[in-house]
Amino acid sequence: MRDSRINYVLVGSFVLAMLLALVVSIAVISGRTGRTDSYYVLYDNVGGVKYGTKVLFEGFPIGQVEDIRPQRDDGKVRFNLRLAVTGGWQIPDDSVARIAASGFLAAVAIDIKGGSSAGLLAPGTQIKSQSGGNLFNAMADIASEVTNLSQTGLRPLIETLNRTVAAFGPVLEQRAPQLFDNLVSLSADLAAKTPRISTNVEQMTSGMNRLFSPDNTRKLEDTIGNVDRTASNLAELTGSLHASKAKVDSLLTTLDKMTSDNSESVGQGLKDLRYSLQAVARNIDSVTYNLEGTARNMNEFSREIRQDPGLLLGGNRSRDETGPK
């Protein structure tokens, strides 16, 4: 009886030890064997992520995803993930958490790419996020785009080509021999004219070379320089003309002011000038008559002086010259 009790005790102890080992193993596998710190990450898409998804730091497991909560941000749904990280683990504040998979068929994980900053994130703060690439989602998007392209682009294009071929097919069948004949005659004509075309091209090339020779290029550069200098001179002349125009405007303004200020004197002067001109007009006949007489007397005087210069000294002609004694 005593031996059976001992056996029962041993079996019970063994079962309890196995249960304890099972609990410890499950805790070790789940990564919940000690104190943890919580961090948060926001993602637009959490495909493949669920409760218990591993959290890696540079590929090293440091925790798991504890909670996923959708939230609406500016009319768009985003997902807030709470990460349970091993207590005391140091995460630089410029680290980036992205959804990644270590292999082609491996499960996705939250992989934290450690930064180089000296500052560390405090527990309970948010880690910068970066959406990871999913090969299968990308392939599905590509397949969808290809399907859309084939339905909206390629199919209408093929139908249009079929209609075009159906429309031009009979025409081409009827015109094909004539078109081939034209092509043959055109090729023969081109073959016959190719030497002359080549000669003309060579002549044109030589002419262009002579036209753009170094001497002509230098002359062209000199001409451009002269044109630039002429343009600068014209600009200076234009500036001088503007200055002269300003001076003329100032002079006209001054004259206008003087005229307006001395309008009475100017009017009186004009009246006097008109009276003088009227007096000259009334006496112009007698003045011209006297001038004509004076001119005749001057002619007679000059003729007498030419004939007898002694008149300037004696005043009268000698009797021998004037008449008999």
Q: Give the low-pLDDT segments.
A: 318-325
Query: How much is the average pLDDT?
Result: 81
Radius of gyration from the alpha-carbon trace, in angstroms: 60 Å
CA-based shape: elongated
Number of domains: 4
Q: Can you offer a commentary on this structure?
A:
The protein is α/β, with parallel strands linked by helices and 325 residues long. It folds into four domains: 31-132; 134-209, no CATH class; 212-261; 262-325, no CATH class. The chain has helices at 2-30, 135-211, 214-261, 263-307, 311-314, 319-322; strands spanning 36-43, 54-57, 60-73, 76-86, 96-101, 108-113, 128-130. Strands 1-4-3-2-6-5-7 form a seven-stranded mixed sheet, with no helix packed on it. A hairpin with a 6-residue loop joins β5 (96-101) and β6 (108-113). The model is unreliable at 318-325 (pLDDT under 50).
Helices and strands in order:
Elements: H1 2-30, E1 36-43, E2 54-57, E3 60-73, E4 76-86, E5 96-101, E6 108-113, E7 128-130, H2 135-211, H3 214-261, H4 263-307, H5 311-314, H6 319-322
Parallel strand pairs: 2-6, 5-7
Antiparallel strand pairs: 1-4, 2-3, 3-4, 5-6
Descriptive keywords:
325 residues, 4 domains, 7-stranded mixed β-sheet
Brief overview, please?
The protein is of the alpha/beta class. Helix content is 64%, strand content 16%. It starts with a helix and ends with a helix.
